[in-house]
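Collaborator request, handled under Task 6.
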Amino acid sequence: MPKQGFLIIALFFSSFPLWAQNIGGNATYNFLNLPYSAKASALGGMNISSMGNDLGLAMFNPALLNTTMDGDLHLSIRPYYANIQQYDFSGANLWAKKDWMIGWGVHYMDYGTIKMTDLAGNELGSFRPNDYTAQISMSTSYIKNIQLGTTVKWIQSNYGIYKSNAMALDVAVLYTSNNELNQASILLTNIGGQLKTYTTKEDLPFNLIIGGSIRLEKAPIQFSITAQRMSVWNNTYFDASYANQEGLKDPGTMQNLFNHLILGAETYIGSQVDLDFGYNFIRRFDLNLQNQQNWFNGFSAGLSVKLPRTKIQYGNAFFQRNLYHHFSVFYSLKNK
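Structure tokens returned to the collaborator:
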């Protein structure tokens, strides 16, 4: 009875305390919202419905795990300023006896070496802060066209003498049309709570996400739309005193609506090259400043190159005048 057992496991972990859910914008462990792969970065930073066999996307949405990923390995690196680095390593295997796909991975943030000082500024040494999550995912086909997925996470933060940890669960449902040209998903992420706190209990970055993708039947193009943080209407940070000084307006109804949305497009050049594009509305809203160049805020792009048993991805995103890069490599242990 593998499908019933899968549901029991998901329901058991989803009963973890729900009082530690955040819906207002202030939460700890926000590194969990960063894209796990270059393709996710290229598609606007988040995509839960893209059709294909991308293990990087599946480590964020476990319902995307499918049998074509059996034996795949994935490594991603995303460098930031000041020697801050993001690393992701994951793999997937088919558990044939239960007809389950099992995914596993680590999502790691290294913030470099930081000097440690006292209140007077005297150096006392240095420390190396980091955040990471180790996770195990499972997915299975429930009924025709419906895939279920769940992820269990162990979350750890180390900031010198300050340490905390938590456990969380993601739950997802994926629908694929009979012609495999349409796909939609619902994902709840970071259901859970802290086990050990820095000082006081903090919320996890709970997120209710809905996404859909359409692939054109007679053209090599796929379009996606993702709606994030659907459990709260006002999705923006708005400082009224700063806004008054700068002459900024409170986001209106339409702005609040669009700030939930991320758009993505994928173009296939033959069977070996994909070009990816994305637009993140809230990123543009948050980063746009008066009297500064804001042309490409919110835009992202990238490409994927498929080789025998290997796939290489590159993604980037604009943050005012800065361009951030994301690199991913996939390797199949099996000759498919």
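The cover message to the collaborator said: "The longest helix spans residues 2-14. The first strand starts at residue 72 and ends at 79. Please let us know whether this matches your experimental observations."
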